[in-house]
Amino acid sequence: MAAEEDRRLGAMNPTVPHLRIVVAACVAAILGYLGFSVWVVLWSNDVALKGDVIGTWKSFAVLAFGFWLGSSSGGKASMPGPQPVTIEQPPEQPVPVEAR
User: On the CB side of 34, how many CA atoms lie within 13 Å of its CA?
Assistant: First the structure.
């Protein structure tokens, strides 16, 4: 009964809903921008637009590299445990300060 009620109420689940649709929409958007980019670079005479399109592809490349770098090294990082702290100037021995 609880599972049916959760499904009816739209409870969160750990999967991406309609993953194929999301991937297909992303692929369609990238292919559409690729087609537009080819037109801009080969046939357009607008220099500013060419620069914007090339800059966007450079940003995509940096994003992809950053994602790859983060995902490949993310699981290898480990946090060390708490480190011992040494108090060099305990409260009983205050630091002498000259008065002005």
Answer: 6
